[in-house]
Design goal:
The structure is a single chain. The chain has no helices and eleven strands. By secondary structure, the protein is mainly β. The strands form two sheets. Strands 2, 4, 5, 6, 9, 10 and 11 form a seven-stranded mixed β-sheet that branches. A hairpin with a 4-residue loop joins β5 and β6. 37% of the residues are buried.
């Protein structure tokens, strides 16, 4: 499995937007999978942000619902996270994640098997 490649992080002011993208370590065109985004502030626990499965079922963390949108382009094998109306509390390292085991329901808080190196998002007030 190749390591996911994330991009799109950066520094923005509160109310701004960013669009993260990632090529996950699983094929989005074949088989069953769950892919998503997890964030972590150094020194704090990881927090599931969003997930999407092979059927297009989507789930969000309560903290981001209505502001973030997860999507995927199977042909490009790319996962996206459009983040709007960003808040300082969204500041974190965002990781692209994937899983094909199917041992847990596909949700942002699941224990993903594959992780990228992360991309940093900083939101200033």
């Amino acid at each position: 499995q190749r390591e996911p490649e994330e991009s799109g992080g950066g520094a923005v002011q509160a109310g701004g937007s960013l669009n993260l993208s990632c090529k996950p370590s699983v094929s989005l065109s074949h088989g069953s999978y769950c892919v998503g985004w997890v964030r972590q502030v150094p020194g704090k626990e990881r927090e599931g942000v969003a997930s999407i499965d092979h059927e297009g079922n989507i789930n969000y963390a309560v903290a981001v619902e209505g502001r973030f949108a997860v999507s995927k382009d199977n042909a490009k094998n790319t996962l996206y996270l459009q983040m709007n109306n960003l808040k300082p509390e969204d500041t974190a390292i965002y990781y692209c994640t994937a899983d094909i085991n199917g041992w847990e329901p596909c949700r942002p808080e699941m224990r993903f098997a594959y992780w990228g190196r992360g991309t940093e998002v900083t939101v200033s007030s």
